[in-house]
């Protein structure tokens, strides 16, 4: 099939690569415009664009894919199907109807759970035992289209947002190829989503990472893992921001929420609303990420000091 690929970040790259290596023809890649990044505001190209250029595939970066001129251009390419994965813009009905087989979305959750921009991280934060990839026929809603295939992955005990991202990006490529094969031979199912069973996974923000020590240690530990590597969970120690990268839940009946109740060679233990969190890896602002053992060699933490 002649495929238009629409995607932007790292998550989309394995699926594009799988398409390039398959029997399908990627006739064009549509991605977000280059953006300035960092203190020097250097223009950075999307990872999907890098992959497309590497393989000599034409790249298009419209400011708005809903623009009628661009829709006519896509129509002129005469695609059989459009594959959309973490693209970053909402498609109009007019664009959705251009390809012969429509637009197929590769979504990183088991729909209808976790519609929205942050399904990977929220599945960790909320303590799900499993998640996966869903392919679907796109409609004008946000992740509301009829489902085609689902593939499941288990969320491990110490799973982070980053490790789950990598698992699902690889799985997404496999699920997509299976989906295109079914579309070609006319066997692709259409299962309507039950809206009443849907949940929403909003976009992540840096503010989300501020730890509320009055919450249960289990919730805080999941937040730390879910927001690793971005935007990261953090608190304040002696007025300085400290990112917390790893911790273990331990039993505690202490009432001093947010207080350092114990320090040993490898952990700083902080009381939470229920139980306590043994911090194992952290990063003080302006410093590198390190184990607690490394941190305590160069920074004195007193019992009774409060984080927050």
Automatic annotation (TrEMBL):
Could you list this entry's UniProt keywords, alphabetically sorted. Answer: Protein biosynthesis, Transferase
Give one GO molecular function term: methionyl-tRNA formyltransferase activity
Q: Where is the Formyl transferase C-terminal domain?
A: 204-299
Output the InterPro entries linked to this UniProt entry. Fmt, Formyl_trans_C, Formyl_trans_C_sf, Formyl_transf_N, Formyl_transf_N_sf, Formyl_transferase-like_C_sf, Met-tRNA-FMT_C, Met-tRNA-FMT_N
Q: Which ranges carry the Formyl transferase N-terminal domain?
A: 1-179
Top EC category: transferase
This protein's GO CC annotations = cytosol
Give me the residues that bind (6S)-5,6,7,8-tetrahydrofolate, please.
Answer: 109-112
In the record, the note on similarity to other proteins reads: Belongs to the Fmt family.
Q: Return the protein name.
A: Methionyl-tRNA formyltransferase
Organismal lineage: Bacteria, Bacillati, Bacillota, Clostridia, Lachnospirales
């Amino acid at each position: 099939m002649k495929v238009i690929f629409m995607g932007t970040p790292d998550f989309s790259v394995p699926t594009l690569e799988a398409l390039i290596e398959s029997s399908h023809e990627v006739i064009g890649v549509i991605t977000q415009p280059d953006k300035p990044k960092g203190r020097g505001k250097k223009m950075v190209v999307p990872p999907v664009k890098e992959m497309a250029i590497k393989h000599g595939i034409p790249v298009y970066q419209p400011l708005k894919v809903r623009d009628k001129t661009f829709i006519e251009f896509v129509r002129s390419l005469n695609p059989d199907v459009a594959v959309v994965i973490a693209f970053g813009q909402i498609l109009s009905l007019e664009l959705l109807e251009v390809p012969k087989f429509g637009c197929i979305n590769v979504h990183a959750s088991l729909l209808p759970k976790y519609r929205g921009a942050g399904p990977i991280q929220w599945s960790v934060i909320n303590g799900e035992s499993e998640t996966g990839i869903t392919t679907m026929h796109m409609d004008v809603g946000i992740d509301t289209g009829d489902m085609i295939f689902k593939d499941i992955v288990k969320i491990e005990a110490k799973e982070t947002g980053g490790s789950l991202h990598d698992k699902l990006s690889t799985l997404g490529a496999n699920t997509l190829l299976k989906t295109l094969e079914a579309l070609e031979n006319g066997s692709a199912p259409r299962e309507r989503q039950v809206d009443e069973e849907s949940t929403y996974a909003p976009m992540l923000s840096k503010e989300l990472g501020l730890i509320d020590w009055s919450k249960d240690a289990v919730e805080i530990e999941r937040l730390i893992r879910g927001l690793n590597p971005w935007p990261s969970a953090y608190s304040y120690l002696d007025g300085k921001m400290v990112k917390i990268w790893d911790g273990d839940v331990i039993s505690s009946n202490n009432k001093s929420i947010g207080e350092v109740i114990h320090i040993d060679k490898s952990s700083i233990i902080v009381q939470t609303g229920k139980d306590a969190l043994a911090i194992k890896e952290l990063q003080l602002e302006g410093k590198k990420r390190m184990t607690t053992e490394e941190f305590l060699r160069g920074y004195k933490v007193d019992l009774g000091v409060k984080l927050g």
